[in-house]
Amino acid sequence: MMPLTAPDGPAGVSVRRARAADLLAIEDVQEAAGRGELLDGVRAALHDPQRLVVVAEAAGAVVGWAKTHVHATSDGVAPAGHYLGGVTVEPTWRRRGVGTALTAVRMDWLAERAGRVHYMVNAANTASIALHAPWGFREVVRSSALHGVRFAGGVGVLLGADLPAPAPPVSAAGGTR
């Protein structure tokens, strides 16, 4: 299992790759947040090498989770490529850096795989838009549906950000290879 780190994450919180044994805890976080989630979709993502599912833990309990998606084709409005999926944080842990830590880990993972990443959000979800702004996400287009997702209130926003190129490997002598 690859190590995942969020160096600026909140004290006492660690982020790691999710496992099948985390599905019930993910479901609990979703329920606490008043959201539904199809666990079959999360289960499928766990076994897809092109996707990442991560959980944030505090004192051994899952307090948040997030995932990535890959869309193989454009839907005519939204391009093909890597996307950040939803991020959900247990309500008592919100506004404490958990969502930022989950996003940082996914962005680092995606930077090893792609040059650009997108995400879709309801236009009314200003908290999500603010969360993603530090990574340079900018609005690409607004639509009532993106990659088959319909948005409450009728307006979804597709945002995109360029990813930094991965750093070259460092040799034991301290130079790049």
Low-confidence stretches: none
- Please summarize the sheet with the most strands: 4 strands, antiparallel
Q: Helices and strands: which structural class?
A: alpha+beta
> How much strand content do the residues show?
25-35%
Question: Would you give an account of this structure?
Answer:
With 177 residues, this protein is of the alpha+beta class. Helices cover 22% and strands 31% of the residues. The chain has four helices and nine strands. The protein has helices spanning 23-32, 39-46, 98-111, 126-132, and strands at 13-17, 53-58, 61-71, 81-89, 116-122, 138-143, 145-146, 149-150, 156-162.
What is the topology?
Blueprint: E1 13-17, H1 23-32, H2 39-46, E2 53-58, E3 61-71, E4 81-89, H3 98-111, E5 116-122, H4 126-132, E6 138-143, E7 145-146, E8 149-150, E9 156-162
Antiparallel strand pairs: 1-2, 2-3, 3-4, 5-9, 6-9, 7-8
Brief description of this entry?
The chain has 177 residues and is an alpha+beta fold. It has four helices and nine strands.
List keywords for this structure.
177 residues; 22% helix; three-stranded antiparallel β-sheet; four-stranded antiparallel β-sheet; alpha+beta
